[in-house]
Amino acid sequence: MKLHALALSISAALLLPLSAQAAPKLYGQLNISAESYQKDNQSPVSVDEDYTRLQSNASRFGVRGEDELTVNLSAVYGIEWQISGDGEDISGLSANTTTTVSGATASSTTTIANGSRLDLTQRNRFVGIKHKDLGTVKAGRFDTYLKTAQGKTDLFNDFIGDIEFTIAGEDRANNAVGYESPSFKGLQFNLLSQTQDVAAKATNGTSLSVVYDNKDIGLYSALGVNKSIVGRSALFGTSREGEGIRLAVAYNIADFNVNAIYSTNENVNGKDGEKAYLLGAAYKLGDVVLKAQYSTAEADDEAKIAVGGLTERTAFSVGADYNITSKTRAFAWYTTREEVKKDALVPVPNDVEETALALGVEHKF
Hints:
This protein is mainly beta. It has a single domain, classed as Beta Barrel (Porin), CATH 2.40.160. The strands form 2 sheets. Strands 1-3-4-7-8-9-10-11-12-13-14-15-16-17-18-19 form a 16-stranded antiparallel barrel. A hairpin with a 4-residue loop joins strand 3 and strand 4. The two termini are 47 Å apart. About 11% of the residues have low confidence.
């Protein structure tokens, strides 16, 4: 009897450290839509487009976890990839393409072999330490806190109506160190620093947010600020060292929800500034959610006179989600987007208008 009890005690002692190590969680989603797409180019040298397509809308998978280190500390980690759910090359590179990736200290070249497709692209990935009372410190590549300040105000996230078309700052920061405070009565503070080895910047970049999320009264509000962050502009190219502000508000009354965003962004040299606005609304009818969203971005006066400058973008979307289960939804939506361009030297119409009608399904696991 004593030997049996001793054996149980030894087994429990050996297994106890293992029990503190939580198993990593595999998660993801497949989001695919069949779409009818049209593009109208007013420029006489551009060809209009009209075709059907199958789209993978930011389909992804990843692994994340939290392992206990002490009573108060735990290690947190995560790594996520975007995948081509429809089989298309999501890298933007075709077969036999060579691309060079440059940084402040080194560069490398990657060649895609003949006939192959790049089926994975990077999303968030990080490792960090979490204190149950003091918050989390993490390092890696992850969304800026200006981006995450949007909360769930983007009702057409990951689709052609995504706010990244009109609102700057939808960025993941490479070479980032972040701090996320605990939530105190719905209030949270976040701070990110982007090191100088991104595009050989003169200073570290900073992204911060203050978030207030009170589910009891249905109010979400957040202020995000970027300074010297390498990221996207809605009107002036895909990557630049910029500064911006984003204010997001969402209010829920019973089954009705209204959202709004105000955003500014400019180059660190003070040029190429833009302002953007978003208004959205959603109404829940049982398992069906009806929604609509409008957003617009406009360049400042200096940018409007630039030769060939893109001066305005607008997007309008309406749609409906049918939540079959908590993990599976069917959806339908219609989006129209427009770009306005000004060329002081060649006054030829060159605006672009796009429309898309979609029917699809999303499943999370």
